[in-house]
Write a structure and sequence with these properties.
The chain contains 8 helices and 29 strands. It is of the alpha+beta class. Strands 4-5-7-6-8-9-10-11 form an 8-stranded mixed β-sheet, with helices on both faces. A 5-stranded antiparallel β-sheet has the order 12-13-20-15-18, with no helix packed on it. It has a 5-stranded antiparallel β-sheet with strand order 21-22-29-24-27, with no helix packed on it. This is Accessory Sec system protein Asp2.
Length: 567
């Protein structure tokens, strides 16, 4: 049998209207050639070019009779697992002599679709290569394995692109809607179908698609063998409207538990039934795309609710963390438990919101009480790609944190935590360390019955000796910050006095014992520094101080500086 040939017909209109039923001889001859596996692809000098379906070439990819192309969305990074949209073409013109146009719309079935689907989505666009204008992807006498070959191609493309079945969505409008619906039923795929042309009754008299006597006008009859009634998942969405005069009535014949039908309340400018169909398929594109994307992303989305619990403020200066994929979070029995899930992390961070942000240049004491098998690396950040870390271990109680920036979050990198590892947080308190906290000494505060009166000052402290005592001492005890070793230390005190003082003394305090370890004559309004040595190997010193001995009444003493250094 020849691969191609040319033939003339009469009457001749230069397109496929030459073969309408009114020209019975032409119509019957065309259908006979279709049964032999030919279609028309071209017209020149009054002759029509008949070509075997296998010999057609639309300039894309081929496998046997099948013609298709594969395009993709932006895939320069693996944002999502690979996905596949299988796009079946609608019917544009049934009379053009271009087979590529009739069967494939020249490959331009849905321009811009690549920019309208999620990243990492591939698009397999199929031509309806059967008979003269296509067979709505149904088997025919001349192509009895059409459905099986399309199913095989979809599976092969999925294997080659690494797409699992759950991430495949079949789509199409009108004729393409029938193809998508058919193959979703056959292969148990998800599908979004836009007003499928499931009946050709409207085109019967004109034999619009040159399919009379080849397939039933009621296309739902061809779908019945693939119906199922045992599925609880509505994975096939049909968008239509009860204003669709041509096809709506036939939807009631789609008795499959996988199908859900959406009835769109859309108005029409014209009364013609085919005009209604084009209004629905064209006017519903935004909603159609939204349904397609919902199906494509359904395995990547999870509906979550913000936590209703609040961590007790007396033990936590962090907020209850938001639900996330890396940790199971439970607050129970007064502890917060984080359990690492098996979800792979790629540079992600699980964050707590701080009740009060860390400020740049400030020092903080973080009291963390946790139970953990391995150290936990916390990161203070603003959710950008940099931050400042600190480590908490099971034995950790207090951590000194010098903030080098303003940080509003404290997080944990999931990559540093093994699957199944639990982190039990009993307490997470944060205290900003004041200048006084950073001082190795405590500034004594005096009451009204004391011999000294505390004065407003620009120095560390200022005191007025205003009531005589025998002697009246001020004890600058070591602060909790000061930690000493069994060693000798040098202590210096710088003061300024409002009256001359002879033999002004620097005292050392140890339990109930006070020792004068240094003394010096001081002149009025001049800075003077006294020094002494204390030895913690010999005595457990608790602080240093001054006394009123030699000080005239109503003398003000300014404490300018105190320091202690290990020798």
């Amino acid at each position: 049998m020849k691969e191609e040939f040319w033939e003339s017909f009469s009457p001749d209109f230069g397109d496929l209207s030459t073969f309408k039923p009114i020209y019975q001889e032409n119509n019957q001859k065309l259908k006979e050639y279709a049964r032999q596996g030919y279609t028309i692809d071209g017209y020149e000098n009054g002759s029509y070019h008949f070509v075997k379906l296998e010999a057609l070439d639309f300039g894309h990819q081929k496998k046997g009779r099948l013609q298709y192309k594969i395009t993709s969305s932006t895939n320069n990074f693996q944002y999502f697992p690979n996905k596949l949209v299988v796009l079946f073409p609608y019917q544009d013109s049934t009379i053009t002599t271009s087979a590529s146009h009739r069967m494939f719309l020249n490959g331009e079935v849905f321009p811009g679709l690549e920019q309208s689907v999620p990243r990492n989505t591939y698009i397999l666009t199929l031509a309806d290569v059967n008979c003269i204008t296509g067979s709505f992807f149904l088997n025919t006498e001349s192509y009895p394995d059409y459905i099986a070959e399309v199913q095989t191609l979809i599976k092969e493309v999925c294997e080659n692109l690494g797409v699992i079945k759950e991430n495949v969505v079949l789509i199409g409008s009108s004729r393409g809607g029938v193809g998508a619906l058919l193959h979703a039923l056959v292969g148990d795929y998800a599908a979004v179908v836009n007003d499928p042309a499931i009946s050709l009754i409207y085109a019967h008299n004109n034999d619009e698609y040159f399919l009379g006597d080849m397939i039933s006008d009621d296309l739902t009859e061809s779908l019945v063998p693939y119906f199922r009634h045992d599925s609880v998942e509505k994975k096939i969405t049909i968008i239509s409207s009860d204003t669709s005069k041509i096809f709506w009535s036939y939807l009631q014949k789609l008795q499959d538990s996988r199908i859900k039908i959406i009835n769109v309340d859309i108005k029409h400018r014209h009364k013609n039934g085919f005009s209604h169909h084009s209004t629905i398929t064209g006017g519903m594109i935004p909603y159609y795309l939204s349904q397609v994307n919902e199906q494509l992303l359904k395995n990547d989305l999870a509906i979550v609710e913000p936590p209703t619990e609040n961590l007790p403020v007396e033990r936590f200066d962090i907020g209850m963390p938001m639900v996330n994929r890396w940790f199971d979070i439970v607050y129970q029995n007064d502890v917060l438990t984080l359990t690492r899930t098996a979800v792979v992390s790629q540079g992600d961070q699980f964050n707590f919101i701080l009740k009060k942000a860390f400020q740049m240049g400030q020092e903080y004491e973080i009291e963390v009480d946790i139970i953990t098998e391995k150290p936990v690396h916390f990161i203070a950040s603003n959710a950008l790609n940099h931050g400042q870390g600190f480590v908490a271990e099971q034995t950790t109680k207090k951590i000194i944190f010098n903030s080098n920036n303003c940080w509003a979050l404290v997080g944990i990198s999931p990559e540093t935590i093994e699957t199944g590892q639990k982190i039990v947080i009993k307490q997470f308190k944060i205290r900003q360390i004041s200048d006084a906290d950073k001082f190795d000494f405590s500034i004594p505060h005096v009451n009204q019955r004391h011999f000294w009166k505390q004065m407003a000052t620009e120095f560390l402290a200022s005191y007025l000796y205003y009531r005589e005592g025998s002697p009246a001492r001020l004890n600058f005890a070591f602060s909790s910050r000061f930690s000493h070793e069994k060693a000798r230390y040098s202590v210096t005190l710088t003061v300024q006095v409002s009256n001359d003082v002879e033999k002004f003394g620097l005292l050392g305090f140890a339990s109930n014992r006070v020792s004068r370890l240094s003394e010096k004559d001081i002149r009025k309004d001049e800075l003077a520094t006294l020094s002494m040595i204390i030895d913690f190997r010999k005595r457990d010193w608790t602080g240093i101080g001054i006394s009123s001995q030699g000080v005239a009444l109503n003398t003000k003493i300014d404490i300018v500086e105190i320091s202690i250094t290990k020798l």
